[in-house]
Amino acid sequence: MTTSVVSIVYVNDAPAAARFYGDLLGMSPSFETPGYITFDLGPGADLALWSGQFEDLSPDVPRTSEVCLAIDGGPDELNATFEQWNSKGVTILREPHDAGFGLTFLAADPDGNRIRVAPRD
């Protein structure tokens, strides 16, 4: 049996969210419908953006989960990613800091979903 993990992020506007995530990830969607768009992140991992499941998602509502983008390259690469996202106007919730597992920062997409950038294990 082939297994894939799909992380689903609920958004108000899937095409707009796909443009946002595509810009951050530097990739194009692998599958698109008007309300459901996925990105192939590699063997067994996909990121899905799904609209229409909840009405009027608000960035003000507290979130209890996050999408974590694990990157290679250590602190220099993480800081460079932070600077790049900051220059694009991405909402930064917490600047780079040591969280016990390494340097990390926390951002949010336009719908308020949390995005953590951390070192790859």
Folded structure, characterized:
This is Glyoxalase. The protein is an alpha/beta fold and 121 residues long. The protein folds into two domains: 1-52, Signal recognition particle alu RNA binding heterodimer, srp9/1 (2-Layer Sandwich); 64-120, Signal recognition particle alu RNA binding heterodimer, srp9/1. It is built from two helices and eight strands. The chain has helices at residues 14-25, 74-87, and strands at 5-11, 31-32, 36-42, 45-51, 66-71, 91-98, 103-108, 114-119. It has a four-stranded mixed beta sheet. The chain has a four-stranded mixed beta sheet with strand order 5-8-7-6, with helices on one face. A hairpin with a 2-residue loop joins strand 3 (36-42) and strand 4 (45-51). The longest helix has 14 residues, at 74-87.
Mean pLDDT: 91
Class by SSE composition:
alpha/beta
Corresponding CATH architecture of the largest domain: 2-Layer Sandwich
Order of helices and strands: EHEEEEHEEE
**How many individual β-strands?**
8
Number of helices: 2
Radius of gyration: 14 Å
Distance between the termini: 26 Å
InterPro entries: Glyas_Bleomycin-R_OHBP_Dase (IPR029068), Glyas_Fos-R_dOase_dom (IPR004360), Glyoxalase/dOase/EhpR (IPR026275), VOC_core (IPR037523)
Organism: Streptomyces cyaneochromogenes
Protein name: Glyoxalase
Pfam family, one: Glyoxalase
Chain-wise SSE layout:
Elements: E1 5-11, H1 14-25, E2 31-32, E3 36-42, E4 45-51, E5 66-71, H2 74-87, E6 91-98, E7 103-108, E8 114-119
Parallel strand pairs: 1-4, 5-8
Antiparallel strand pairs: 2-3, 3-4, 6-7, 7-8
Pfam families: Glyoxalase
Protein name: Glyoxalase
Domain VOC: 1-120
